[in-house]
Amino acid sequence: MNVSKENMLLYVVTDRTWLGSSRLHEQVEEILETGATFIQLREKNLDFDSFVAEGKEIRRITSKYRIPFVINDNIRVALAVGADGVHVGQKDLEAKKCRELIGDDKILGVSAQTKEQALLAEKNGADYIGVGAVFETSTKTDASPVSFETLKEICSSVSIPVIAIGGINEDNILKLKGSNIDGVAVISAVFAARDKKQAVKSLLSLAKEAVL
Q1: What is the pLDDT of residues 78-116, one digit of tens each?
Q2: pTM: predicted TM-score of the whole model, two decimal places
Q3: Is 66 a residue of the active site?
Q4: Active site residue: 5, 97, 140, 152, which one?
Q5: Is 138 a catalytic residue?
């Protein structure tokens, strides 16, 4: 396994929607120096060269803080950037093929909505599972809802770390307590916050309580 459960505690997925006058890598550094434990760069609209350039800036920062860094759904970019790995969904390239392409030393994260999907992902080389959407979310409108019972079932079925994702914020994160997750993935809860440092501090504290 290429990641520890400790790395999963507060997994932050980037979103440039709320950048304003800031640059993405500047916000990522602010987030990392406050305690985020994992970064995923998610870009759906950047061209290859721009995506790679952004990725290299963030790679430099994550290396500085020694925090795992993966690219969402783009193996070419992940390899060009020298990222720690890649995260793929059920509609993306299958996990087994991803593992073949990135090699054994890279992190492979896979999204799952069912126990069967999670077990298959683990069998095919996934290092961690992202389960969601656990709450309603505007960030990923095509994400199927996942019940607390299903989340708990997935956590008890696989031996690799599991994170919950989808609509998680300070108000609902503790509803995940007792599911046996290893951490939470957040997007707007951090990037839409006016005070990102305070948001990270608060979410980190709550995540520690949620995973107990």
Answers
A1: 999 999 999 999 988 899 999 999 999 999 999 999 999
A2: 0.95
A3: no
A4: 140
A5: no
